[in-house]
UniProtKB/TrEMBL annotation:
Active-site annotation: 131
Family: Belongs to the polypeptide deformylase family.
EC number, as in UniProt: 3.5.1.88
Entry cofactors: Fe(2+)
Function: Removes the formyl group from the N-terminal Met of newly synthesized proteins. Requires at least a dipeptide for an efficient rate of reaction. N-terminal L-methionine is a prerequisite for activity but the enzyme has broad specificity at other positions.
Pfam families: Pep_deformylase (PF01327)
InterPro entries linked to this entry: Peptide_deformylase, Peptide_deformylase_sf
The keyword Metal-binding is annotated on this UniProt entry: yes
Annotated binding of Fe cation, by residue: 88, 130, 134
GO biological process: translation
Protein name: Peptide deformylase
Catalytic activity field: N-terminal N-formyl-L-methionyl-[peptide] + H2O = N-terminal L-methionyl-[peptide] + formate
Length: 159
């Protein structure tokens, strides 16, 4: 297990949709271990595989003391709305109000091929959508409203 370096925008791996995991290999098991160890840090709610440079559909989470992972997640359902501050390890230091569904449900598998269903509202719902976006090659800045997006991009250029 290792704490892995976080890739930051504009690293192209963050803009590339991730591949489905077709076989649980020793490398996939090491990836999950690294995702779990890397997300286990105060202030980290979620971490997708591409954020540590691996273009596979997997993410880990750390919400309210519960740490876990899901492979090949599919965002199945969203409903309601929340509008609140969102940040990202791959966009360090930038927090912007982002519109998301309040509730989200994701379905995937674990390392034994068993079905995993994660769902929740508030922070959990936001994290599920945020990590699935990462695996589809998007960062939260893509979801910002026009003026917030303009401000965020300006702030990034001025660093």
């Amino acid at each position: 297990m290792a704490i892995r370096e976080i890739r930051v925008v504009p690293d192209p791996v963050l803009r590339t949709p991730c591949d489905e995991i077709r076989e649980i290999t020793p490398a996939v098991r090491r990836l999950v271990d690294d995702l779990l160890e890397t997300v286990n840090d105060p202030g980290r709610a979620g971490l997708s595989a591409n954020q540590i440079g691996v273009s596979l559909r997997a993410f880990s989470y750390n919400i309210e003391g519960k740490i876990g992972y899901v492979l090949n997640p599919v965002l199945e359902e969203t409903r309601g709305e929340q509008y609140g501050d969102e940040g990202c390890l791959s966009v360090p230091g930038l927090w912007y109000k982002t519109r998301r569904a309040d509730y989200a449900r994701v379905r995937g598998i674990d390392l034994d091929g068993n079905e995993v269903v994660l769902e929740g509202t508030g922070l959990m719902g936001r994290m599920l959508q945020h990590e699935c976006d990462h695996l589809d090659g998007h960062v939260y800045l893509d979801r910002l409203e026009k003026e917030e997006r303009r401000a965020a991009l300006k702030q990034m250029r001025n660093r």
